């Protein structure tokens, strides 16, 4: 097989993406659909799910709260009914969590961040592995963050979960290697889009500066001086599902223009 062909993702993959009806998840879903993959997304937002179904009628979209174990189990029941298998799990669902000092973060805010950002990744991996064990191209891709390799003041619940995801990924890569299930993590940086706009707004309010000032301070943290488009994250996810990546596992891969600090 030529090098160029090895860079092409396997065709017909069965892909499940949590939190996949909007944001980075939707961009990743659209990229896999372009390759002919059978894509199933779940999302907590009914509105997002309905809109996703209209845009991508060839895909399956399920409303589910990833913090609810019963609803996650139902997602996998629907996966089996739909395509009776799984090749790729994209563990993507997550929330930003509070933007404030540790002394002001409530127990509920902390627990919600842990439950959605970290516990849900366990739940999806837990149900996915028996299906992935039957796949010839099995892969789990955890979506972490640049906040999974750097400290992040005023965003401690978010950063704590994203660091924990790296530990989960590294452990699963070692645990599942003898079953030929690859496990990696993507660490998106400062991603263009509405979510980052909200983060900049909240951060500006926390620091008592204007949003344009906060935007410039944000860009100053990046070696390349620019945000990362979500398409770049999707492209890396596709590469990891190509023959060229068959020996890549246990890796935390940043897509961030080299964010130097947060």
Features:
Rossmann fold, oxidoreductase activity, acting on the CH-OH group of donors, NAD or NADP as acceptor, alpha/beta, 9 helices, globular
Could you characterize the architecture of this molecule?
The protein has 262 residues and is of the alpha/beta class. The chain has one domain: 3-Layer(aba) Sandwich (Rossmann fold). It has helices at 3-6, 23-34, 46-55, 69-83, 107-132, 156-176, 194-207, 211-220, 230-240; strands spanning 14-18, 38-43, 60-63, 88-91, 139-143, 182-188, 252-255. Strands 3-2-1-4-5-6-7 form a seven-stranded parallel sheet, sandwiched between helices. Helix 6 links the parallel strand 5 (139-143) and strand 6 (182-188). Helix 2 (23-34) crosses helix 9 (230-240), helix 4 (69-83) packs parallel to helix 5 (107-132) and helix 7 (194-207) crosses helix 8. The longest helix has 26 residues, at 107-132. The mean pLDDT is 96. This is SDR family oxidoreductase. Belongs to the short-chain dehydrogenases/reductases (SDR) family. It comes from Pseudomonas helleri.
Shape: globular
Strand content: 5-15%
**Major sheet: size, sense and barrel closure?**
7 strands, parallel
Tally of discrete structural domains? 1
What are the SSEs and their pairings?
Elements lengths: L2 H4 L7 E5 L4 H12 L3 E6 L2 H10 L4 E4 L5 H15 L4 E4 L15 H26 L6 E5 L12 H21 L5 E7 L5 H14 L3 H10 L9 H11 L11 E4 L7
Parallel strand pairs: 1-2, 1-4, 2-3, 4-5, 5-6, 6-7
Organism: Pseudomonas helleri
Protein name: SDR family oxidoreductase
Pfam families: adh_short_C2
């Amino acid at each position: 097989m030529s090098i160029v062909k090895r860079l092409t993702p396997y065709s017909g993959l069965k892909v499940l993406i949590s939190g996949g009806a909007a944001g980075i998840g939707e961009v990743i879903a659209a990229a896999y659909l372009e390759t002919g993959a059978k894509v199933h997304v779940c999302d907590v937002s009914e509105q997002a799910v309905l809109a996703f179904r209209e845009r991508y009628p060839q895909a399956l979209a399920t409303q589910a709260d990833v913090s609810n174990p019963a609803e996650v189990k139902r997602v996998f029941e629907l996966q089996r009914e739909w395509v009776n298998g799984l090749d790729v799990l994209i563990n993507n669902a997550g929330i930003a969590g509070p933007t404030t000092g540790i002394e002001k973060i409530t127990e509920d805010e902390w627990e919600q961040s842990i439950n959605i950002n970290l516990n849900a990744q366990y739940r999806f991996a837990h149900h996915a592995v028996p299906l992935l064990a039957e796949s010839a191209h099995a892969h789990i891709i955890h979506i972490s963050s640049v906040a999974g390799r750097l400290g992040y003041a005023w965003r401690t619940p978010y950063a704590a979960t994203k660091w924990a995801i790296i530990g989960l990924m590294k452990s699963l890569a070692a645990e599942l290697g003898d079953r030929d299930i690859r496990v990696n993590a993507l660490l998106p940086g400062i991603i263009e889009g509405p979510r980052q706009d909200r983060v900049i707004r909240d951060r500006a309010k926390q620091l008592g500066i204007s949003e344009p000032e906060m935007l410039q301070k944000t860009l100053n943290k990046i070696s390349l001086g620019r945000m990362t488009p979500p398409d770049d994250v999707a492209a890396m996810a596709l590469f990891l599902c190509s023959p060229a990546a068959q020996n890549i596992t246990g890796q935390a891969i940043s897509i961030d223009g080299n964010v130097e600090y947060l």
